[in-house]
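Hi there, hope your week has been kind to you so far. Would you mind checking whether the C-alpha cells look sensible for this chain? I owe you a coffee for this, so here goes:
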Amino acid sequence: MPVFSDDLLYSREHVWVRVDGDFATIGITDYAQEKLGEVLSVELPEIESEIERDEPFGTIESAEKSVAELISPVSGDVVTVNEDIDDDVGIINSDPQDTGWLIVVEMKDLDELDDLLDAKGYHDFVLQEGEVD
C-alpha cells in the first residue's frame, strides 16, 4: 500500500511537491515508484535550467525497460538536483518521498500550487484509476 503524506502536495502525473516558501522540492510518489518497479536510471535537468508546469523535466527508467517522462507540477528555475541519486538510484524506490527527492525549483507562480492535490485528494485520484485499495 503506497504512502500518502499529509505534508506533500501531489500532481495527477504522480509527482509530489514539498513547499518551502518560494521553493518546491519535487520527487515521484510512492505509488509511482511501486508501479515502475526497480528504478535503473534518472535523467534530470541541469541546475539553473528553467522548467515549465505540465512539461517534462526529465525521465525515469525502470527494470521493466519502461521509460517514463517526469512532468513538472510547477514552473520555475532548478536550483538543486539530488546528487545522491547518482551514487544510489535505489533511494527512489526505498524512500521516494524523502531522501529520494529529485530536484528543487524556485517557483515563478505560487498560484500553480492551487491545482495540486492534498494527500486525501491524491489517494482518491489513485483509487479512481482502480490501482489501490
In short: The mean pLDDT is 94. Residues 9-128 form a domain with the OB fold (Dihydrolipoamide Acetyltransferase, E2P) fold (CATH 2.40.50.100).
